[in-house]
Amino acid sequence: MAADAFDFWLGRWEVAWDEGARGTNEITKVLDDRVILERFDGRPGTELAGMSVSVYDADGELWRQTWVDSQGGYLQFEGNARDGGMELRGEHRGEPRRMVWRDIDDRSLTWLWQRSADGGSSCDRDQVENRDGDQRDLRPACT
Prior knowledge:
By secondary structure, the protein is mainly β. The chain has a single domain (2-130), classed as Lipocalin. 0% of the residues lie in helices and 55% in strands. The protein has no helices and ten strands. A ten-stranded antiparallel β-barrel has the order 1-2-3-4-5-6-7-8-9-10. The chain is globular and about 35 Å long. Residues 133-141 have low confidence and may be disordered.
């Protein structure tokens, strides 16, 4: 069911990115289990903290996500389940943004948080989430 497509993300995750930076991400269902609430704490890897709300839009048949953070950031994404994972896309100040969740199992997943300054030909950031502390190094194109 499309409304349950984000359930794989639920739980408390250890987050690793860049060269050994770490933080946590806690994902829960709220508001009669219709909204996915993300609480990200980048410490000690970064001082960034933030949260997102994701909801399945049955009329549009897609997921919508809004992100806000401690640095005044505000981003919007939309997308759907794809190839056994999830893909959300957005744009910020003319730069395409994409998040892809893949390689999903009970203890880990790969979460690629990507942006591009050249229209999607290349990406400048990846992030990996998992429950068991392992980090994977994957750098696919944004397109």
